[in-house]
C-alpha cells in the first residue's frame, strides 16, 4: 500500500466519521420552561409493577398517578381518587374516583386499578414490591400461588368506585396507595405491548401530569412532557423536565455551573462545602438511617448490653457527620429517621428520643466497656468491621476504627466490600459488626421498626427482645386501628431498641442538591416518589 | 492465505470460547441475583423470578444454554433494565463507542506520524525536544485526567465545546482528544525512532546521491519505511482506546458501551457484563487479525503463511 493511499483512506474515513457525527441532533431545546434535571443513574423500567429503584420512582410518580399522592408534612392529597372513606374497623377503604383520562384519551376507571393491583401481586409478574400489598386480603396467598389473582381484596363498584378489603387494619395504607405498584394499569395497554410493556417511552401510557418521551430503553436522557389529558393539567406550570444522566459528579457540577443543568445532586464534602451557604443549596431529607448491627450469634460478647452501649458511646456522631462525611448527612437521633412522621406537630424522634442511645461520652464508654468485658470474662476483643466500599462506607470504617480502638483491648480490622457482597455477608451472618443502612418505604415509623423483631429477615445481628416484639406486634395488630395507642407502641418500641442498644445508629443520610434559583416549587419527599414537579415553576 | 485466515479465525473462536467460559464461571462465583428485595419475597416469587432469568437450573446447564444463546447473539436479559435484552442494550449503545474509538485512532495515529517525523527530521533540535515532551506527557497522563482537564478548561471556562453529552459532532471533540492522546504519543515515539534509523540507512544516502529532493526522500523513502513497524502497535493502541473509553465515556456522559460496562459492574448486572466482555474480546481479536493481515500485505518480507524462500 502506498503512503498516499493510506493518507487518502484515512482522510476519507475521518471525514465520513465527522459527517456521521454531524448528522446527530444538534438542535438546542428551548430551555425556557423545561427544567434540566440531573439523574445519577439510568432509568431501568417504566413498568409500574416492576419499578423498585429511585430513578423509576422519580419518573413514574410524575408521569403516572395513583389514588392518592404524597403531600407536604407526611400527608396525602387526592390523586385519581377525589375522596375516600375508611370503615370503622379500618378494614374497608372506599375510593371515589374522578373522571380522568389516560394519555391515549381513554378513561381511567376503577377496573384499571383492579387490574393494576392484581398484576403487581400476581407471582408471574415477578414484582419485587409485591410485599407492600401484604395487608390486602388474600395478597399473601396469591404471592405463594395458593389463591387465584381474582381473589385479591380489591373490587370495582361501577367505573368510578373502588372498594379495597384489608385482612387487618393498616393505618398507613393511605401512604402505600401513593406508590408505583398501586398505580392503575390499562389491561388493553399491557396486552398490546406484551413483553415490551414499559421498556421504552412509547410502549407505555400515562395518567399523570407528564408523559415520558424520548426514552429508548437504554439512552441517557428522557423527558417528562406536559400531559394535556391530565385532569389537573391547568395547574401544571412548566412544559416539562428533561432528565440527563450524569454519573460523574464533577461533570455534573461543570454542567451546572455552565447553566446546562438546573439541578444536580451534590456528592462528597467538597461539592457540599462549595454550595452549603448558597441560596441554591437544598438538603433533601431522606428516610434513611445508617447503623451498626452486632452479630450476637457469632460473637457472644455482643449479647452483653454494656459492651453494646460502650461501642455506641464511643462514637462522636456530630464530629463524624460534620468533619468526616461532610456530605449533608445528619447525626443520628435514633433509629427512625427525623422528619418521617409526626403527631400533633411533634416529630416521632422527639417523642421517642433516648439520649444514651446516640450520645458521645468516651469516659462513660470506657467504664461500661471494662464492666462488660469483666461480665463476659474476656480481656479484649478482636473484631472486623464490615461496610460498603463506597466513599461513605470507607469513611465510616476508618472513623469507627479510630474511635473503637480507644477502648482498651479492642482491635478492629476494616473490611470494605462492594454492596452486593457486603449484603450477602450480612444476610449469612458472616460478620462481627456491619455498617448498614435502611431507607423507609413510606412515612410511618413502622417501616423502620419491623426490621428488628426477633424473626425478621433483615435482623442480621439477631438481637432479640420480647418487649420490643410485643410493641411492634401491637402496633401492627391489636392497636392498628387506634392512632394514639399505636403511636405509643411505636414510641415504646424505639425506646426499647435504644435503651437496650439493639443496634447502634450513626447517621441519617440526606440528599444535598444545588438547584438554580430560576426553578421553584419542586417538592421533595423523604420516602416513596421522592420528587414532585406538579407545582414546579420556572422564572 | 486462506489457510492462514482459517487458522486465525479458528483461534479467534477459541479465544472467545475461553474468555466466555472463564468470565461465566467467575461471574457465578460472585454474589448477586436479579432479586432486589430478596428477604421480602415469598419463595414462590423468588423461584419464578429466577426461572425467568434461567437461574433455577444447575450451573452446567446454565453454561451450556448461555453458550448456545451467545452463538446466536442472545446474551440474555439485563438484571438492571427489566425485560431489556442485553443484545439490544449493546447494539443501541455501540455506535458512539465505535465512532469515538475510530476518530481517536485516526487522529491520534496521523498526528503521531506527523509529530514523530518532524522530530526525526529535526533531530536534537527544539522541535525534537518539543515532540518528545508531548509524547512523554501523552503516555504518562491517564486519559481520564486529561478528560477532566479538557472538560474544565475548554468546556466550562472557555465554553468552546460542550461539557458533556452526545448530540452532534461538537460533542465528540473533547472525548476524541482525550482518547487520542495515548495513540498519538505512542505512534510519535515509534515513528521518530524508526525514522531516525531509516534516515541513517544506505538507501537514503543513495537517494540523496541520485539527486532527489529532500521532501521527496522523506515522503517516498523514509516515511514509508518507518511506518511499516507502526502497524504492529495498532493492536495494543486499540486496546488502550477501548480501556480508556470506559472512563472517558463516563466523564463525558456518552451513551456508549464503555459507560454501560462500568455501570453494569457497579450494579452487578451479570448478563450485561458477560455480553460486553464478549463483544470487547471480539473487537480486539478482529483488530489484531486485521493488523496482522495488513502487515503481511504491506511488508513483503513478512510472509503470513510462514514459508521460507
Tell me what the structure shows:
Chain A contains 18 helices and 27 strands. With 539 residues, chain A is an alpha+beta fold. Chain A has a six-stranded mixed β-sheet. The termini of chain A are far apart. The relative contact order of chain A is 0.14. About 3% of the residues of chain A have low confidence. Chain B has a domain of 197 residues: MetI-like fold. In chain B, helix 6 packs across helix 10, helix 7 crosses helix 9 and helix 10 runs antiparallel to helix 12. Chains A and B meet through helix 1, helix 7 and helix 15 of A and helix 2, helix 4, helix 6, helix 7 and helix 9 of B.
Outline the fold blueprint.
The complex is a heterodimer of chains A (539) and B (309).
Chain A: H1 3-22, E1 34-39, H2 54-63, E2 68-71, E3 75-78, E4 81-86, E5 92-97, E6 100-101, E7 107-108, H3 110-121, H4 139-143, E8 154-156, E9 161-165, H5 173-176, H6 187-193, E10 210-213, E11 221-226, E12 240-245, H7 249-257, E13 263-265, H8 268-275, E14 281-285, E15 288-294, H9 305-313, H10 317-325, E16 330-331, E17 342-343, E18 346-347, H11 348-351, H12 355-358, H13 362-376, E19 381-388, H14 391-404, E20 410-417, H15 419-427, E21 433-439, H16 446-449, H17 466-476, H18 483-499, E22 504-508, E23 510-515, E24 519-520, E25 523-524, E26 531-532, E27 537-538
Parallel strand pairs in A: 1-12, 19-20, 19-21
Antiparallel strand pairs in A: 2-3, 4-5, 5-9, 6-7, 8-9, 10-11, 11-12, 13-23, 14-23, 15-21, 15-22, 16-22, 17-18, 24-27, 25-26
Helix pairs in contact in A: 9-13, 17-18
Chain B: H1 2-29, H2 43-52, H3 59-71, H4 86-121, H5 126-140, H6 143-157, H7 170-199, H8 202-209, H9 214-227, H10 230-251, H11 257-266, H12 270-298
Helix pairs in contact in B: 1-12, 4-5, 4-7, 4-10, 4-12, 5-7, 6-7, 6-10, 7-9, 7-10, 8-9, 10-11, 10-12, 11-12
